[in-house]
Design brief:
8-stranded mixed β-sheet; Rossmann fold; globular
Length: 424
């Protein structure tokens, strides 16, 4: 009998060849097909092989010419198969060419697919199909080379609006802001870069690039100047805090405000759960490295997204699956270990960052997942010592608060930074 890997691979091969009967031969009669909502696309859950062929797969195939659905990585884990790949084609009505990433999961039983979930087909897919759909958000996916490193970034909103610069954490990328950007693009000009070695930015080896927070901040400074940002509100999450505070202390005149979401700047904000990382930073040996390597595993990535949330079953699986795809690239483990080792450079800078806050009193919003296993509630409250007028909101969620409270955080940002130039 073919492995689940081979069965799923056969589906994509059949779709590329337009062979619908062969593609659907992998379906169980009771298959459940799940598509999430996107702008211009309601999504939904479909049941039954014949229903899916008639109302989902058949119309999809008929929509495209020169269709290519290419899996780049197929990972088999028991009864579940995770597929990362790309779509490419041309819409036969709009004439628009299209290319996008995909993440699909399949669940198989006795050699047949019983569940399919479309996790991360991008909004651009549905914009291509329905270019005039109301509520469609235009997010431009761009890249630029600075200091020999290609930096990928997302840009949305109107030129001339206040700039919101979103700095992501570990192990994520600009993907963590995929819901926040549409929620704010009408009021801000938004930029969300991926750091070197993260997301879609280039990934030079540790021999070619110095993976330290100082150097990442240096590259981000070069990128800021290359794309022409003069001033901005900074959104700092996890790694975004040590990167962003380096930017702020180097150029305080550029910072119009801070959104701090589980981004630490105080010793009391460091949880006991970081003890293995502290041991590795102090004495990097094979023995101390082993526990921190667990931070690179799929089960830990999922845990980071779901721990402390109100409804872990509602956290979108594409969050951790997308991150894990990039973590699993050959050589990326050495990059992440280098960043772990350099985290020791951050606590000695806390007094400098706190002095910046006391001296410049930037408009500050602290929106903090209070159940974060790494950065404590005490670390959130500590910002009030140096910026007494800061707005503090402790949210009943975890480290990646945007996964569960994006709408609330977006509303808080609008309220905090409702400058005259932001008004419609």
């Amino acid at each position: 009998m073919s492995t689940n890997h081979d069965i799923v691979a056969g589906f994509y091969a059949a779709v590329r060849q337009g062979d619908i009967p062969r593609a659907t031969s992998v379906f169980a009669e009771n298959l459940t097909w799940v598509e999430p909502p996107f702008p211009g696309h309601e999504g939904g859950t479909f049941h039954g092989k014949d229903n899916i062929l008639t109302n989902v797969l058949g119309p999809f195939i008929a929509t495209w010419t020169d269709l290519s659905v290419t899996p780049e990585r197929i990972t088999e884990a028991g009864d579940q198969v995770i597929v990362h790949g790309t779509y490419k084609g041309k819409h036969h009505q709009t004439g628009r060419a299209f290319e996008s990433r995909l993440i699909h999961t399949w669940t198989l039983k006795d050699g047949k697919a019983v569940r399919f979930e479309m996790l991360a087909d991008t909004v651009q897919f549905f914009r291509t199909v329905r270019p005039n759909s109301p509520g469609t958000t235009t997010v431009k996916n761009k890249s630029i080379t600075v200091s020999g490193v290609n930096i990928a970034y997302r840009e949305a909103g109107a030129e001339g609006a206040p700039v919101l610069l979103l700095l992501h954490g570990f192990p994520s990328s600009s993907h963590m802001f995929r819901d926040l950007i549409p929620a704010l693009q009408d009021k801000f000009h938004i930029f969300a870069p991926d750091y070197p070695g993260f997301g879609l930015s280039s990934m030079p080896s540790t021999k070619e690039f110095e993976y330290t927070f100082d150097n990442v901040a240096h590259i981000m400074t070069d990128w800021i100047e290359a794309v022409g940002l003069k001033n901005y509100v900074l959104y700092l999450q996890d790694y975004g805090a040590p990167v962003g505070f380096r930017l702020a202390t180097a150029h305080p005149e550029r910072v119009q405000g801070l959104v701090i979401q589980n981004g630490n700047a105080y010793v009391e904000g460091l949880s006991e759960n970081l003890a293995p990382l502290s041991a590795y930073m102090s004495n990097p040996t094979p023995e101390t490295e082993k526990p921190v390597r667990a931070l690179l595993a799929l089960e830990t990535t999922k845990w980071q997204y779901t721990h402390g949330t109100r409804h872990p079953e509602e956290i979108a699986p594409e969050s951790w699956i997308y991150d894990q795809y990039f973590l699993d690239r050959p050589g990326n483990d050495e990059i992440q270990l280098a960043m772990f080792r350099d985290y020791k450079s951050n606590p000695p800078l806390y007094p400098e960052w706190q002095s910046y806050l006391r001296t410049h009193q930037p408009s500050t919003l602290v929106a903090w997942g209070k159940n974060d296993p790494f950065f404590t509630e005490a670390g959130a409250k500590a910002f009030l010592r140096d910026v007494p007028q800061a707005s503090l909101h402790l949210l009943e969620t975890g480290h990646f608060a945007l996964e569960e409270d994006c709408a609330e955080i977006a509303s808080l940002i609008r309220k905090q930074f409702s400058l005259a130039s932001c008004q419609s």
